[in-house]
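Q: Is it fine to ask for two folds in a single conversation?
A: Yes, each is treated on its own. Send the first.
Q: Here.
A: Result:
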Amino acid sequence: MTMKKKILALIVCVTVLSFIVIGFAAADNLDGCRITRTSRLPTTLNCETTTQNNVAYCLYEDGDCGMCCLLNGIYNITDWVFVVLMAVSSLMIIWGAVLFTTSSGDPDKVGSARQLIIFAAVGIAVALFSRAVPPAVRMIIGA
């Protein structure tokens, strides 16, 4: 492994760990969580929310707030994964099309363009799969 890859890996690890530590530090002071869309939460859970400045909060001492916060977090993460993967996959398809049109029949360029479009298709499949995660979690926890 080259020195640049080691430095990049170290930077990524430090960044991820710092986000985790900051998340735990911020979570220690929370009495509840912010619910982005209450309509997505199951009606079988007792998700009593209070509204402050037009924002819904679920307080941990109320009913099933922990499960409501977990499902809300899963929905938020999968929404972001879906948006990012769809955007990157769309750009990869466009770039693959540009490579196809500028390849002038060169088999290496055509192969790399084809590979790029295949990777983009896999990215779209993963993005669509991320939309199936919240219902699967709801089924697992019985909500």
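Q: Second one now.
A: Result:
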Amino acid sequence: MIIVFTLILLAVFLTTALSFSYFIIGDINKARAIDNSIIAYYSADAGMEESLYLLQKQEIANSLDGLKTIRAAGGSLPASLGVWDIGDSTNFEKTVLRQRLYNGQSVKFFILNRASANQNNSNSLTLEWYKGGGTNPKLQVNLTQLTPQTQDGTLVYYTDTSELEVADTAVNKFVTTYDLKNIGLDGSILPARTDYLLELKVLGATGDFVDRLSVKAYDKKKGDQNYNDSLDLQGITNLTLKSKGSYGKSTQNIVAQILPKDPVSGMLGFVLFSKEDVTKE
């Protein structure tokens, strides 16, 4: 009986020890994963900062494809052994998406390289947005040509579309399509397709806001057959900088949408990292 009792007692102790070991090892693995994730995140942050620095300060490239060629191997942080790369970055924003814009806030982006149909086939843009619950915002839409025209001896950047959108009060949603007109100041068709700057600004009372604003480019114009099948994934020329940090088995991504060089002012469209639309995946 003593032997049987001893064996039972040992089995209980062993089961208890194994149970505690299971939970302790699980907690250790979770703590290690958190530590690794933090290192991976700051590795991604370092990649983002360096990429913005090379683009903004040193101007060693004017596109993310060019930057990826220079930084093909990514980079590393010697102290922590974390690594990062920007291999998933692109020169295009497939869909401009802003979750929320308040009264007075605005967003802009470019539709570039339209002079050659081999580079950008976009001929129209579709906007979709919702008005914030209990508010009544309006959306100012301006499409400005980036090919200057001469008027009375002065170069003018012509805004051929300027409209104020008001959401449907029944469904709180507005969807509309704007053609890229390519017309001159005198109403004639321009000899070459011009690039465009689209500016969207929310107007209304204090506290009014727009939700889920999205913009897509299409190859066909409004009313053309099979319009919905002509989505142009490279029509919106906003740089999507994606920095992926890795350490151990953990990875973290930081994404920022960046405007290209501003053809109107000649100034760089880049701003400081802290002011970018940055999201963590």
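Q: Anything structural to flag on that second result?
A: Two points. The chain has two helices and 15 strands. Residues 35 and 250 are 9 Å apart (CA to CA).
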